Design the sequence.
């Protein structure tokens, strides 16, 4: 039931915007989605299963945005800065994405927990129950995808240099996600993108 599952995840995320995860009640999530509590348990198995599904969806959403940024800009010099721009926007818009990227979960958020064999009959839940990448693994995954996209440009660029360029862009973006700028952050992430472009220009000029 993809539509029901998405409605339940939306309801849980909405509840999390005003309550710490410990105060989010399954019965309230089910009611907000317009389904029975049993339907919620059938889909996710438990509150921990719901938490893992929320985090998995956040990871998938971030990676989908990475793919869009790379498809649009991957073969141009703007690719690393656009990747950084999306990373900052995603982290500012969703605390779960920020936690996935930084490893800082805080007291209000659900945590991934230890992965183990899933007994769920729901394929999407079995995937949600699987291990999630650590921040280091996620950065490496995104960096390598960016290198592959940029390397396909014309003329091809040096892969090792591209890897360093993309890592610089991502780590600068993460610094904005962890510590907001002294001045009010740009709602579009333009402040972070400008710094990344300047840093990459200096790196290229060396």
Sequence:
């Amino acid at each position: 039931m993809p539509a029901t599952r998405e409605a339940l995840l939306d309801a849980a995320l909405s509840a999390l915007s005003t309550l710490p995860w410990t105060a989010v009640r399954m019965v309230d999530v089910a009611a907000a989605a317009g389904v029975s509590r049993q339907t919620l348990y059938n889909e996710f198995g438990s509150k921990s299963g719901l938490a893992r599904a929320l985090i998995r969806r956040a990871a998938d959403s971030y990676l989908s945005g990475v793919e869009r940024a790379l498809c649009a800009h991957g073969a141009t010099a703007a690719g690393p800065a656009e990747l950084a721009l999306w990373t900052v926007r995603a982290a500012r818009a969703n605390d779960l994405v920020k936690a996935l990227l930084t490893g800082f979960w805080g007291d209000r958020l659900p945590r991934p927990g230890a992965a183990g064999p899933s007994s769920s009959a729901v394929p999407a839940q079995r995937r949600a129950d699987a291990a999630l990448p650590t921040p280091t693994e996620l950065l490496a995954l995104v960096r390598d995808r960016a290198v592959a996209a940029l390397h396909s440009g014309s003329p091809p660029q040096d892969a090792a240099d591209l890897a360093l360029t993309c890592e610089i862009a991502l780590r600068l973006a993460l610094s904005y996600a962890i510590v907001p700028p002294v001045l009010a952050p740009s709602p579009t992430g333009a402040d972070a993108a400008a710094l990344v472009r300047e840093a990459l220009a200096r790196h290229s000029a060396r």
Summary: The mean pLDDT is 86. The two ends are 54 Å apart (CA to CA). Residues 58-110+132-205 form one domain. DSSP finds ten helices and no strands in the chain.
